[in-house]
Write a structure and sequence with these properties.
163 residues, mainly beta, 5-stranded antiparallel β-sheet, Spore coat protein U domain-containing protein, signal
Length: 163
Protein backbone atom coordinates (compact mmCIF):
# COMPACT_ATOMS: atom_id res chain seq x y z
CA UNK A 1 0.00 0.00 0.00
CA UNK A 2 2.88 2.35 0.81
CA UNK A 3 4.34 1.70 -2.62
CA UNK A 4 1.06 2.46 -4.35
CA UNK A 5 0.69 5.78 -2.47
CA UNK A 6 4.28 6.75 -3.24
CA UNK A 7 3.82 5.83 -6.91
CA UNK A 8 0.60 7.84 -7.08
CA UNK A 9 2.25 10.84 -5.42
CA UNK A 10 5.22 10.64 -7.80
CA UNK A 11 2.99 10.46 -10.88
CA UNK A 12 0.82 13.34 -9.56
CA UNK A 13 3.90 15.50 -8.96
CA UNK A 14 5.12 14.72 -12.48
CA UNK A 15 1.85 15.83 -14.08
CA UNK A 16 1.48 18.89 -11.84
CA UNK A 17 4.78 20.33 -12.97
CA UNK A 18 3.74 20.11 -16.63
CA UNK A 19 0.60 22.28 -16.29
CA UNK A 20 0.95 25.92 -17.48
CA UNK A 21 -1.37 28.86 -17.04
CA UNK A 22 -2.87 30.34 -20.21
CA UNK A 23 -0.83 33.40 -21.41
CA UNK A 24 -2.38 36.83 -20.90
CA UNK A 25 -1.79 39.96 -23.03
CA UNK A 26 -1.88 43.64 -22.16
CA UNK A 27 -2.62 46.30 -24.79
CA UNK A 28 -0.30 49.32 -24.28
CA UNK A 29 -1.03 52.64 -25.97
CA UNK A 30 -0.25 56.31 -25.58
CA UNK A 31 -0.73 59.69 -27.19
CA UNK A 32 1.29 62.85 -27.84
CA UNK A 33 -0.79 65.92 -28.60
CA UNK A 34 0.24 67.80 -31.76
CA UNK A 35 1.99 71.14 -31.24
CA UNK A 36 3.04 73.79 -33.73
CA UNK A 37 3.67 77.03 -31.85
CA UNK A 38 5.79 80.15 -31.55
CA UNK A 39 6.28 81.22 -27.93
CA UNK A 40 8.27 83.93 -26.19
CA UNK A 41 6.45 86.83 -27.84
CA UNK A 42 3.67 88.71 -26.10
CA UNK A 43 1.07 91.17 -27.30
CA UNK A 44 3.27 93.91 -25.85
CA UNK A 45 6.50 92.75 -27.53
CA UNK A 46 7.93 95.53 -29.67
CA UNK A 47 11.32 96.40 -31.09
CA UNK A 48 12.57 99.96 -31.49
CA UNK A 49 15.64 100.04 -33.73
CA UNK A 50 16.46 103.67 -32.98
CA UNK A 51 17.00 106.34 -35.61
CA UNK A 52 16.39 104.63 -38.94
CA UNK A 53 18.66 105.37 -41.85
CA UNK A 54 21.82 105.15 -39.79
CA UNK A 55 22.24 101.40 -40.05
CA UNK A 56 20.62 100.42 -36.77
CA UNK A 57 19.54 96.97 -35.73
CA UNK A 58 17.77 95.26 -32.89
CA UNK A 59 17.15 91.80 -31.51
CA UNK A 60 14.29 90.02 -29.80
CA UNK A 61 15.76 87.17 -27.75
CA UNK A 62 14.45 83.74 -26.75
CA UNK A 63 11.69 83.05 -29.24
CA UNK A 64 10.90 79.33 -29.17
CA UNK A 65 9.64 77.59 -32.29
CA UNK A 66 8.13 74.12 -31.76
CA UNK A 67 6.45 71.65 -34.08
CA UNK A 68 6.23 67.97 -33.21
CA UNK A 69 4.88 66.60 -36.49
CA UNK A 70 7.09 63.89 -37.98
CA UNK A 71 6.75 65.58 -41.39
CA UNK A 72 8.41 68.77 -40.10
CA UNK A 73 7.24 72.36 -40.37
CA UNK A 74 7.34 75.53 -42.43
CA UNK A 75 8.39 78.74 -40.68
CA UNK A 76 7.18 81.97 -42.28
CA UNK A 77 8.18 85.59 -41.62
CA UNK A 78 5.62 88.09 -42.93
CA UNK A 79 5.87 91.89 -43.12
CA UNK A 80 2.54 93.71 -43.09
CA UNK A 81 3.89 96.79 -44.94
CA UNK A 82 6.79 95.20 -46.88
CA UNK A 83 9.09 97.38 -44.79
CA UNK A 84 8.94 100.21 -42.30
CA UNK A 85 6.14 102.45 -43.58
CA UNK A 86 5.84 106.11 -42.69
CA UNK A 87 3.01 106.81 -40.24
CA UNK A 88 2.26 109.99 -42.22
CA UNK A 89 -0.77 109.00 -44.32
CA UNK A 90 0.34 111.31 -47.15
CA UNK A 91 3.82 109.73 -47.38
CA UNK A 92 4.50 106.78 -49.69
CA UNK A 93 7.91 106.17 -48.08
CA UNK A 94 8.77 102.59 -47.05
CA UNK A 95 12.17 101.71 -45.59
CA UNK A 96 13.39 98.21 -46.32
CA UNK A 97 14.93 95.98 -43.67
CA UNK A 98 16.01 92.40 -43.16
CA UNK A 99 14.68 90.17 -40.41
CA UNK A 100 16.31 86.88 -39.53
CA UNK A 101 15.18 84.16 -37.11
CA UNK A 102 18.36 82.17 -36.39
CA UNK A 103 16.75 78.69 -35.91
CA UNK A 104 19.87 77.16 -34.33
CA UNK A 105 22.18 78.24 -37.15
CA UNK A 106 19.80 77.54 -40.06
CA UNK A 107 18.07 80.93 -40.32
CA UNK A 108 14.93 81.98 -42.12
CA UNK A 109 15.56 85.50 -43.44
CA UNK A 110 13.18 88.06 -44.89
CA UNK A 111 14.45 90.94 -47.02
CA UNK A 112 11.57 93.39 -47.40
CA UNK A 113 13.18 94.97 -50.47
CA UNK A 114 12.19 91.88 -52.44
CA UNK A 115 9.24 90.22 -50.64
CA UNK A 116 6.52 90.61 -48.05
CA UNK A 117 7.09 87.10 -46.73
CA UNK A 118 9.51 84.20 -46.80
CA UNK A 119 8.90 80.55 -45.88
CA UNK A 120 11.51 77.94 -45.06
CA UNK A 121 10.96 74.25 -44.39
CA UNK A 122 12.49 72.55 -41.36
CA UNK A 123 12.65 68.98 -40.23
CA UNK A 124 10.94 66.18 -42.00
CA UNK A 125 11.72 62.59 -41.24
CA UNK A 126 11.46 63.13 -37.50
CA UNK A 127 13.43 66.26 -36.64
CA UNK A 128 13.77 65.93 -32.89
CA UNK A 129 15.20 69.42 -32.31
CA UNK A 130 12.12 71.08 -33.79
CA UNK A 131 9.82 68.71 -31.91
CA UNK A 132 11.53 69.64 -28.63
CA UNK A 133 11.56 73.36 -29.52
CA UNK A 134 14.29 75.55 -30.99
CA UNK A 135 15.00 78.76 -29.07
CA UNK A 136 16.01 81.47 -31.49
CA UNK A 137 16.79 85.17 -31.63
CA UNK A 138 15.10 87.47 -34.14
CA UNK A 139 17.44 90.09 -35.58
CA UNK A 140 16.20 93.12 -37.51
CA UNK A 141 18.63 95.25 -39.51
CA UNK A 142 17.72 98.56 -41.11
CA UNK A 143 20.36 99.58 -43.68
CA UNK A 144 22.00 102.98 -43.86
CA UNK A 145 20.38 105.48 -46.18
CA UNK A 146 18.77 108.88 -46.53
CA UNK A 147 15.32 109.02 -45.00
CA UNK A 148 12.70 111.68 -44.43
CA UNK A 149 11.77 112.74 -40.92
CA UNK A 150 8.90 110.97 -39.22
CA UNK A 151 7.94 107.73 -37.57
CA UNK A 152 8.05 104.41 -39.37
CA UNK A 153 6.37 101.15 -38.42
CA UNK A 154 5.71 97.61 -39.53
CA UNK A 155 4.30 94.42 -38.04
CA UNK A 156 6.40 91.30 -38.49
CA UNK A 157 4.56 88.00 -37.99
CA UNK A 158 6.19 84.63 -37.32
CA UNK A 159 4.10 81.62 -38.31
CA UNK A 160 4.80 77.89 -38.02
CA UNK A 161 2.73 75.20 -39.72
CA UNK A 162 3.00 71.49 -40.30
CA UNK A 163 4.52 70.48 -43.64
Amino acid sequence: MKRLVLATMSVSALFASAVYAAPQSIQISGNVDPVCAVTGLHSSTSLHVGPVGSGNSGTVNAITVTCNYYSGADVTLTSTNQGLKSTDPSSPVILNYTASLDMAGDPVTLDTSSATFVTKGYGGGGATALAAGITSDLSVNVPTGTVFSGDYTDTLTITIAQQ
